[in-house]
Amino acid sequence: MIPMKYNIIIEATEDPLFFSFYSPELKGFTGVGNSIEDCVYKAINGIEEHLKMLQEMNLPIPNQPKHAKIAVVNEPVPTHKLAFA
Fold it and tell me: Are 7 and 65 in contact (CB under 8 A)?
C-alpha cells in the first residue's frame, strides 16, 4: 500500500521525459518527476512538507479523503471532471 494522504493527479507532459503532479485538495501543491514512480515518491514527501508549511503559516489544513487515490492521465484534465468516489 502506498502511504498517500491526499489524492494525487499525475499527468503526462509534452516532454516524454517528464510528468507533472498535483493534489486537488492541497492548493498550490505541484511537482514534476521523471517517471510515475518518481512523482509518487516526490508527492509523498512533498505533501508532508506542504502540510508543515501550512501549519507554520497558521493556514487551514484540508480534510484528508478516507481513501486517497492516485490517478494517472495522459493529458491534462480539468479538476472538475475527475471523480474520486
Answer: yes
In this structure, what C-alpha cell is assigned to residue 60? 487551514
CA distance 56 to 1: 29
- Measure the CA–CA gap between 3 and 38, rounded to whole angstroms: 14
Alpha carbon of residue 25 to chain centroid:
8
Q: What pTM does this model have?
A: 0.83
Question: What does each C-alpha distance from 17 to 13, 27, 52, 62 come to in angstroms?
Answer: 8, 25, 30, 32
Mean pLDDT per 10-residue interval, the chain, length 85 residues = 91 90 94 96 96 95 93 71 55
**Reduced to 3 states, what is the DSSP secondary structure of residue 46?**
helix
Instruction: Mention every residue, 6+ apart, whose C-beta is less than 8 A from residue 50.
Output: 26, 28, 29
C-alpha distances out from residue 6 to 1, 10, 15, 40, Å: 14, 13, 26, 11
